[in-house]
Structures are given as structure tokens and as C-alpha cells.
């Protein structure tokens, strides 16, 4: 096969892959995907208007319900959306299926929260909850991980919320997307995405990391059940 023919075939393959990704994340399919996986109404009342793209260092992406392993999502994803440069955004990543989708008595578990993001520049946002990968226990089946991006025009005051590090686990339980959005008047769910994950061996690494933090009384007091925050506590 000539080098020219190889080049042409490579270009065609890349075009097909790009087209496939575009079809998967077609904005016209957002509501149907959120409804079919019951993200609506388990997490939010309405689906966003468009997809947010989330790409992990492993080379995998969120594709509206596809399956990713804890190993593949161990690092925070690069998240992009069609932002308005004059607006600010607040992003959350939450698991509503704790300890399992059939028995979500600890719903929700917050994995990531960044407020007041200018445009798509998450690094310039205000990190409320540091990114934590999947700590899905063995035998609990698939968990939905829901990524939501809210648009707002004014800077929000998150000074009353504790800052939760990547070493803190239990204090992330009982998060409520609805309470969070109500507290900060986040009415414009601008973009979103979700994927599913379940136990693999990397979960053991994360669980060992979290036990060290959870033994610290000061953190448990800060993020206790009745501290009037939306992070931690029933």
C-alpha cells in the first residue's frame, strides 16, 4: 500500500471517529439520555440544554452513560462547554447511587465541586470539593456519575461552605444537588454529562487514602450532620 493511500485512509478513520463522537454527544439527545438513565428525576428535575465534554487522562471520555472504570477516571477530567465569556459557571460531579442504585440511602456523594469558573477555565474557579475518583464498593453494581454545569452572571459567595480535600470521604455523603442549587439560586443548568462506573482494584487504593482523613475529629466536626452546609451530613 502506498504512503499516499495510507495517509488518505488515516484521515478517513479520524473523520469517522470524530463524527461518531459528535453523534454520541448530539445536543438533541441530552434530555432523552438524562431521562433514560433516570438522572432526571433522581438528581435534577430537568436535563441541561447541551452536553459538557469530559475527557480523562486515560484517553476515555464521558459519553452520556458509557461505562468507565475507577482506574480510567482516577484523575480529574478536562471539562469543556460552549461558555459565555461574560458569565461564570459552577460545576459539580455527584454519585446518586450510594451505596448502590437499588439502595441509595446515602444519596448523594459529591466527588467534585468548583464554583465561580470564568468561561471554561476550571483552574481559575473556586474549588469547594477537590476531585475524588470512584470509591464504588465491591458488589454494589454500576453507579451513575453525573457532571453538571450551572451558569450564573454574578459571583457567588461560598465562604460558608467547608473546603473538602481529596483525602476526605465520609463527609461527602448526603450531598444534595437540589439543596445546593436552591441555596445558591442556581436555576440555569447549562450543560452536563454522565457515565457509569463500578468496582475495580483501584478502589482499594482510594479507600486506604480516605480512612486516614476520616479519623480526624476536627474534619468530622467541621463537616458534621447539623452544620447548616450542603456538604456532608443527613
TrEMBL record:
Family statement: Belongs to the phosphatidylethanolamine-binding protein family.
By what name is this protein known?
Phosphatidylethanolamine-binding protein
Matching PANTHER family: ODORANT-BINDING PROTEIN A5-LIKE PROTEIN, PHOSPHATIDYLETHANOLAMINE-BINDING PROTEIN
Q: Which SUPFAM superfamilies match?
A: PEBP-like
Checking PROSITE patterns in the record gives:
PBP
| Membrane-traversing stretches | none
Give the InterPro entries listed for this entry.
PEBP (IPR008914), PEBP-like_sf (IPR036610), PEBP_euk (IPR035810), Phosphatidylethanolamine-bd_CS (IPR001858)
**What keywords is this UniProt entry annotated with?**
Signal
Q: Where is the signal peptide?
A: 1-21
Q: What's the domain of life for this entry? A: Eukaryota
Species assigned in the record: Anopheles culicifacies
Amino acid at each position: 500500500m502506498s504512503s499516499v493511500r495510507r495517509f488518505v485512509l488515516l484521515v478517513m478513520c479520524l473523520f469517522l471517529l470524530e463524527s461518531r463522537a459528535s453523534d454520541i454527544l448530539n445536543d438533541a439527545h441530552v434530555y432523552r439520555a438524562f431521562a433514560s438513565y433516570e438522572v432526571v428525576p433522581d438528581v435534577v428535575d430537568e436535563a441541561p440544554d447541551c452536553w459538557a465534554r469530559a475527557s480523562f487522562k486515560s484517553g476515555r471520555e464521558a459519553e452520556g452513560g458509557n461505562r468507565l472504570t475507577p482506574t480510567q477516571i482516577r484523575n480529574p477530567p478536562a471539562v469543556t462547554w460552549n461558555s459565555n465569556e461574560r458569565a461564570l459557571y459552577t460545576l459539580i460531579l455527584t454519585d446518586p447511587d450510594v451505596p448502590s442504585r437499588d439502595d441509595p440511602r446515602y444519596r448523594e456523594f459529591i466527588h467534585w465541586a468548583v464554583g465561580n469558573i470564568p468561561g471554561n477555565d476550571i483552574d481559575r474557579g473556586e474549588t469547594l470539593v477537590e476531585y475524588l475518583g470512584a470509591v464504588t464498593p465491591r458488589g454494589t453494581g454500576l453507579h451513575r456519575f453525573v457532571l453538571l454545569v450551572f451558569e450564573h452572571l454574578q459571583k457567588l459567595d461560598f465562604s460558608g461552605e467547608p473546603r473538602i480535600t481529596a483525602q476526605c470521604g465520609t463527609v461527602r455523603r448526603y450531598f444534595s444537588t437540589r439543596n445546593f442549587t436552591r441555596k445558591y439560586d442556581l436555576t440555569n443548568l447549562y450543560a452536563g454529562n454522565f457515565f457509569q462506573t463500578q468496582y475495580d482494584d483501584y478502589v482499594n487504593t482510594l479507600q486506604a487514602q480516605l480512612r486516614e482523613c476520616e479519623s480526624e475529629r476536627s474534619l468530622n466536626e467541621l463537616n458534621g450532620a447539623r452544620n447548616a452546609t450542603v456538604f456532608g451530613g443527613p
